[in-house]
Amino acid sequence: MSAIIATTELASSRMRVTYRTAGDRAILIEYGEQFPVDLKINFFVHAAARHLDEYGVRGLLEVAPGLRSLLVYYEPHVLSQASLVSALDELHQEIPDPASIVLPSRRIRLPIAFDDSTSREAVNRYRISTRPDAPNVVEGNNVDYVVRCNGLPDRETLYSTILQSEWWNAFTGFYPGLPSLLPLDPRSEISAPKYNPARSWTPEGAVALGGPCLVIHPIESAGSYELLGRTLPISELIRRSRSHRVDPILIYPCDRISFFRISEAELIELRRQVFEGTYDYQIEPGEYAVAEHFTAVQDEHVNAEAIRRRTDRDAALELVEVP
């Protein structure tokens, strides 16, 4: 029996919409195609989530946005599956074309220490205890493997690629508070295969790359993304007097993250300030007009350079060993 309830196509953008059963209390809505990752679809997902929250459908419990999907929870005793799909169809027609979407979006600046000793410790533990022959472990780190995967000449080029773009929090998931970031500048697109098998330990604050997504680990956990460096804590399980937020999670969906480079010694000092409650995170409230992204992508110079980098990356991936 198929899990697909219905499929349709949006009149404004010709985007395919698929409704799937997700247990007896939820519907999974998928937009567009699975590959390649498309920021335009993700913008639409967040616009749909916000619109659905404001729509006031009786019996609707919660909406969880993903990279190219929405998971919609409902109370089946109040709202039937068919009625929910009908309401969702109506909702989709009211959402403007992605280029016209404006979303609440804060700017957050975070420091990063690349190839720090704690990340190296996690890589070394993995090499010793799990997979001594892991091809993604190069001289005790993952950074050099990511450089090779993307056809980049050296580490500094990788670092500047990460630093030059704002990173869009496309979705928060896998576990609470874990942001999955995509670059708004297409020239900063990077990608890497994941660990196989996964690591048993990843330090809190680790910045890592898996597929096209950059993540920041909010807690110590297992992990399978390539470790690139470390930043400040992005979750706060103990409320402090100078807390910069009400929510214990720092990064919200649709936030834009930019990184600035510091040394590991400087990072250790800033982390000490965070734990003492004296550090003020750099957060700027605001909105993001999706048209800004479309303007950048359509720039001939930016687009040509992005295509060249993508071609170099695809060629490089053919030459590296996948874990």
TrEMBL record:
Cross-referenced Pfam families: CT_C_D
Superkingdom, taxonomy of origin: Bacteria
UniProt keyword terms in alphabetical order: ATP-binding, Hydrolase, Nucleotide-binding
GO molecular function annotations of the record: ATP binding; hydrolase activity
Residue ranges of every copy of the Carboxyltransferase domain listed in the record: 17-251
The keyword NADP is annotated on this UniProt entry: no
Keyword Nucleotide-binding: yes
SUPFAM superfamilies on file: Cyclophilin-like, PH0987 N-terminal domain-like
Protein name, UniProt field: Allophanate hydrolase subunit 1
Species whose genome carries this gene: Haloechinothrix alba
